[in-house]
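User: My advisor asked me to double-check a structure prediction for Deoxyhypusine hydroxylase before group meeting. I don't want to rely on an old file, so could you generate it fresh from this sequence?
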Amino acid sequence: MVAFLDLKKLEDSLLNRSGNVPLHTRFRALFTLKSLRTEDAVQIIIKGFKDSSALLKHELAYCLGQMKIPSALPALEEILRDESQDPMVRHEAAEAMGAISASSSIPILKAYLKDPDRSVRETCEIAIAKIEWDNSEEGREHLKAPKDSIALLYTSIDPAPPTSKLLSGVPKQDDLTESNIKDLQIKLLNTELPLFERYRAMFALRNIGTPAAVDALASGFSDDSALFKHEIAFVFGQLLSPHSIPSLRKVLEDAGESEMVRHEAAEALGGIATPDVLPCLREWMSKEDAPRVVRESCQIAIDMWEYENSNEFQYANGFVNVPPLAVIGA
Ligand SMILES: [Fe+2]
Ligand SMILES: [Fe+2]
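Assistant: Sure, here is a fresh prediction for Deoxyhypusine hydroxylase from the sequence you gave:
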């Protein structure tokens, strides 16, 4: 149980009531609230949607989805409907609806399949497929099945499950073969397939996690869907493989790349936290002509880097022990 005063302190920190709470401290408060998974925490997080930072708000939506508490749905629906919100925030709200997986969300997700923003449209498509899959025979069986070690390593609710063969978690010897990785890569890159199927290949490659799987994933950065590319960078943030650093740096440093993709690349680099990534994160955090989302993501990434390189056992204001952002961020 978290005492009322602690909750109040977390709320003040998340909402920056004093006016001088650094963004990374607000993120830490958010992840502490997420780990509580209570109704009170949901209501505090919802209050944050009044903020002006798209980065913060997309993370609020992500956390509400991961908490999987249906009372967050009306607020998420409101964000999806609000076309004045940044598309990155609306995308995350739709994805969170997929994570909560209530059949009642399907009509509203369907209504936004024709949204002017491609990332929003594509997210709605994937979220609908995810909710339908969760209610399929395979999905229901999967929910009941005991989870093994790799499934526990990735505790996030993903936008799509891995391909059927890798559903149970730990890859078997024949999953690691060059030909299997190649097959998954072909699926990953096949733009004729529904995005949900391509995402299933993506999460299968994540669970395989070898350098060859990382290379296969990195080949997805040549896609023309910002949503698809940002999810690859997100997966790299979960995998934490130094092998992915060159491709992530290329994405972060590409001024022509979508902000959403660059943001996710920055946070993945912060989670990988090797000494060589720090100068690059510092440079982009203070680049005046870089988009706000990119600068703020680098600020969060540096906080993650420092956490990974410190002896801090208790992340997030010392309230509750939660994993680093690299493992749980959106
Ligand atoms: Fe996202
Ligand atoms: Fe994100």
